[in-house]
Amino acid sequence: MSEKEKPKAVVVGGSIAGVSCAHALISAGWDVVVLEKSCSPNTGSPTGAGLGLDPLAQTLIESWLQQPELLHNSTLPLTVDLNQATDSEKKVSWTLARDENFNFRAALWADLHGLLFNALPSNIFFWGHLFLSFCVSDDKTSVKVKAKVLQTDETIEIVGNLLVAADGSLSSIRQSFFSDFKLRYSGYCAWRGVFDFSGNENSETVMGIRRAYPELGKCLYFDLGSGTHTVLYELQNKRFNWIWYVNQPEPKLQRNSATMKVSREMVQQMLQNAEKVWVPELVRVMKETEDPFLNFIYDSDPLEQIFWDNAVLVGDAAHPTTPHGLRSTNMSVLDAAVLGKCLAKWGAENLQSALREYQSIRLPVVSKQVLHARKMGRIKQGLVLPDRDPFDPKSARLEDFQELRQKNMPFFDYVPLLLL
Ligand SMILES: Cc1cc2nc3c(=O)[nH]c(=O)nc-3n(C[C@H](O)[C@H](O)[C@H](O)COP(=O)(O)OP(=O)(O)OC[C@H]3O[C@@H](n4cnc5c(N)ncnc54)[C@H](O)[C@@H]3O)c2cc1C
Ligand SMILES: *[C@@H]1O[C@H](CO)[C@@H](O)[C@H](O)[C@H]1NC(C)=O
Ligand SMILES: *[C@@H]1O[C@H](CO)[C@@H](O)[C@H](O)[C@H]1NC(C)=O
């Protein structure tokens, strides 16, 4: 195809799903522009923390990088998936379920985003561009997108053949197809933080946490208390990532975000509560973490449809999910890869067939995974579920423990034929 004939995709959202789509579509022979409302790469983002990558997502990301080993170099292995119970009175922990050969890797959001972004041609990415609206031509072969340039307040129009909505769980493009769509609150929020110990590797805090959690550096730790749980793992470059899930009523969402600004008082209160529940070594890491932040956890029932004419949803826009399957990033990367393969297979002239195949491959998988992640969150938080008593690590039985393993995720290591 000559340069002139290349079909063009307008991707809205430049987070993990957006940059992954840019790679996959360029590989499929498309021209791509990415519109992102943030004004610059979010390297120091306060809301960026750790995430897990499964083996397939790792392979796909490596295929998009000019220097594939950069992914390996900027992540740490998660080879053990370990669920432990914590007795909050005695402050002791014991193993509930343990899986070896887990084969995930842990990345910092900003590191992963940086890797993917830096491997893209620089002229395709439009920072500081807020998507406003789109309209599809009568013959459904083109789509006109309006965006506001935040620095100058001017409105621009971009015309393409395909609109890719990678605008996250609060997607405004999805809202134009499901006007009464609402996210579903999970019943809990997540306190999160990244503890940076570079230069302090031998401090009491670091030695203490390594004694209490000797497999840090290769293990994904879940600690289960009564009606609450934490996640702890190590990241590349001397950092620990921690998450503490706390049951509480739904907040009034601030503006358009599920991340909440926290006051000093809220942090102090959180730390006091942590002392009552978790082992002191973990509490100490929480206390010494700069700027912990708070995410309210939402998901949604699976959508019936994720494409219309020449608009398609990917990533969190297509399937908002709770984080308990460690899959939201993996899902975004896979969405992008499958979309790219479908477009390459059918060609731009058969866009409908390409998008239909994308939907038929991805929708059944992500729908099951979102519902499974929801169930796992409710179990680990001791919340009510149909047909069972709320889970309590102190009274649970062996078969309940087995259920906690990440490997129970539907389609755990299924690879779509198209990607083989
Ligand atoms: C700054 C940041 C930090 C994150 N940190 C973590 C983390 O530490 N751990 C983790 O597991 N997950 C994290 N996530 C979420 C994770 O990236 C996603 O859950 C997952 O990878 C799917 O991503 P997504 O690209 O579909 O959605 P998102 O990551 O939510 O990205 C949506 C993007 O669309 C942009 N956007 C939305 N509306 C518009 C509009 N109207 N015009 C233009 N752009 C728009 C947003 O600015 C955002 O960049 C983070 C997301 C962000 C944005
Ligand atoms: C990755 O790490 C290895 C070992 O430390 C190093 O030799 C290699 O140069 C690194 N690769 C890149 C691209 O940075
Ligand atoms: C990653 O998740 C997708 C679903 O989003 C799934 O199809 C795939 O098998 C997963 N990969 C691995 C290696 O588990």
TrEMBL record:
A molecular function annotated in GO for this UniProt entry is: FAD binding
Q: Which domain of life is it from?
A: Eukaryota
Give every FAD-binding domain span.
137-370
Under Pfam families, the record lists: FAD_binding_3
Q: Which SUPFAM superfamilies match?
A: FAD-linked reductases, C-terminal domain, FAD/NAD(P)-binding domain
- In its UniProt entry, what is this protein called? FAD-binding domain-containing protein
